[in-house]
Amino acid sequence: MRKTVAALLVCCLLLSFSPMAMAESLIGKEQEALVYIDGLLTCRGYNSPQGAMLRLEDMCSFFGVEAGGSYDEASETVSILGRGFTLECSMSSNILRVNERYLYDTEHFTVGPNGRCYFPLSTVQRLFGMTAVVSREGRRIDLDSSAASLPGGGVSYYSDTFGADNVYWLERIINAEAGSQPLEGMVGVANVVLNRVNDHRYPDNVHDVIFDDRIAVQFPPTVEGTIYREPNEWSCIAARLALEGYNTVQDAIFFIDPVNAVDSSWTAGYIFITKIGIHEFYK
Which residues of the chain does CATH 1.10.10.2520 include? Predict the structure, then answer.
């Protein structure tokens, strides 16, 4: 009998110091969200004012990847490193760098009561391709992994996925047209080019779109020669964000700097969408 009681006490102590139990004790019952993947309790999340937050390390663990995270308070930057998964992002930026890819995220990570970094459920869904159902009170999150995987990437991801030539010329037209503009404006220029690529009225690749002069020169840098300059770092990042689907100008297919343009009267025949930096965007 004494041996049985002692064994039970040992089990209780071991459970109380398990990672899941430790997370529970640090987070608190009222903030805790139980995370089930395919019906099995897998980890615990954290309910913040932003909504449900999860640890990316827990998601990696589900895929058999042991990932470690660190948070630098001085730079407010989180880094997560594991075999097949790397992530870097800063609290001051909406850009996630994941497996050499650049993704724009509208929500930020947060540092939970236990000192660990948690990411919005929407970010988890996007990175790993999971669908989610959250209970009304937010205390239970059910994730479906039937179509899930670790995010792809690698140094050649963009060239392999979108074509090296498309990436090359997209970086250069951004740099030539908007290299000194806000990131959103750089992405907007890329969006215009890609919108044209996907429009049957225009050529179906980046190079031919920007050098298209069937009616008139569409992009002055192609005749001024600035298109051939080496792009700056942010122009390269903007190109990748746009290729990933980040869009700041909707379905615009034109942009103009009205202050320096030789003729802006043509804009009267188009629908104004937005202005970012020096550029106005139209469709």
Answer: 157-282
